[in-house]
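Researcher: Here's the sequence for the chain we discussed earlier.
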Amino acid sequence: MNIGIFTSMNGADDHHTIRILFHNYIADLLLGEEPWLNKTTVCTFPEPWYRPPLPTKNNSIDKNIKPTRSLVSYVGVYHNELYGYLHVFTNTTTNTLQINYGDGSWLIYPTHTPDIFVGLGNNIINKRLYQDRIAFHHATNGRYTIDRVEMTTFELNQPPSFTKISSHISEGGNEADSCESNDKSSEEDSCH
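Model: Thanks. This is the structure I predict for it:
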């Protein structure tokens, strides 16, 4: 039997684990074999056959660090030609910033380094996708207003940079009014 399996994925797949499991399952079905993976083992793999060591990375977040500037200065809609739109807004329930990107959502907390945040997955990705470095950058035109954000965890080798296109954002972080960050007046005056 001549078969080929091609998979295109969007997102993380460390060591190609998900693709390998998926291909093995498809190959078993096409060859008429009983798949060795099922609904339970595909989610727990490599268990029950092998118990991997516990992760050593400490994802604890100090939620008491104060940001170096007002949270409202980070709020807005950011855009990247390849990655699309990213929304940053104030989560009034947690009194911190939240980033929405597609179906993903992160509560982000400041670190001891100015304009650098870390994030914990929220909603459907609850605590699963840890963002260990979200770097906001400011304009170098003397105003020092936030004009872009770099999502390091999206792509470690060449992190995408999202340019701020608006400082207005609706409740829930999904829509924005038009307010270009290129406006000559101050960000706070022109966009709030």
